[in-house]
């Protein structure tokens, strides 16, 4: 259904293509778990130099592991703890060039060196976060942040 050969290596061209692929992939489907599963698989297929792509979903006052691609992960993360808990609590994207310098970083995978976490907001309410880890320091930049926030905005339409 999706041709990865269409990717050019240019974030300005490729991220919009991935976002349109997400829309086509989720169109007509209302199951939240299915949509989050396909979204994580799509990002994992597109992004290079990543070792974990997935979601943590808000349940009461903590984040609980949702659909993901990668090694087994931490199951529960309190709000305000680690990169994911901080992004969720502040409802703001966390772009972390070196996770070892982030206060309170939770090391679910020792190979992870950098991370980006995007809060998932719908109608002013936090649903969870998109979490992406890389074994490379400084893997993510402001362009990734911009486009991943757009990816999450598209995803929210199907949650």
UniProtKB/TrEMBL annotation:
Checking SMART domains in the record gives: GAF
List residues of the GAF domain: 31-157
Please list the coiled coil stretches: none
| Domain of life, per lineage | Bacteria
InterPro entries annotated for this entry?
A: FRMsr_CS, GAF, GAF-like_dom_sf, Phosphatase_reg/MetRdx
Keywords of the record: Kinase, Transferase
One GO MF term attached to the UniProt entry: L-methionine-(R)-S-oxide reductase activity
Q: Which Gene3D superfamilies match?
A: 3.30.450.40
Answer yes or no on keyword Mitochondrion. no
The answer to whether keyword Kinase applies is yes
Entry's Gene Ontology cellular component terms: cytosol
Family, per entry: Belongs to the free Met sulfoxide reductase family.
This chain belongs to the protein called: Histidine kinase
């Amino acid at each position: 259904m999706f041709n990865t050969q269409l990717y050019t290596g240019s974030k300005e061209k490729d991220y919009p293509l991935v976002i349109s692929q997400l829309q086509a992939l989720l169109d007509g489907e209302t199951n939240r778990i299915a949509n989050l599963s396909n979204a994580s698989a799509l990002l994992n297929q597109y992004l290079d130099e990543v070792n974990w792509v997935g979601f943590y979903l808000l349940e009461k006052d903590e984040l609980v592991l949702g659909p993901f691609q990668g090694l087994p992960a931490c199951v529960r993360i309190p709000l305000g703890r680690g990169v994911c808990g901080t992004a969720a609590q502040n409802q703001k994207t966390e772009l972390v060039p070196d996770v070892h310098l982030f206060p309170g970083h939770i090391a679910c995978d020792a190979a992870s060196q950098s991370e980006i976490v995007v809060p998932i907001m719908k109608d002013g309410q936090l649903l969870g976060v998109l979490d992406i880890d890389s074994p490379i320091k400084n893997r993510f930049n402001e362009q990734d942040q911009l486009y991943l926030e757009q990816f999450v905005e598209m995803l929210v339409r199907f949650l």
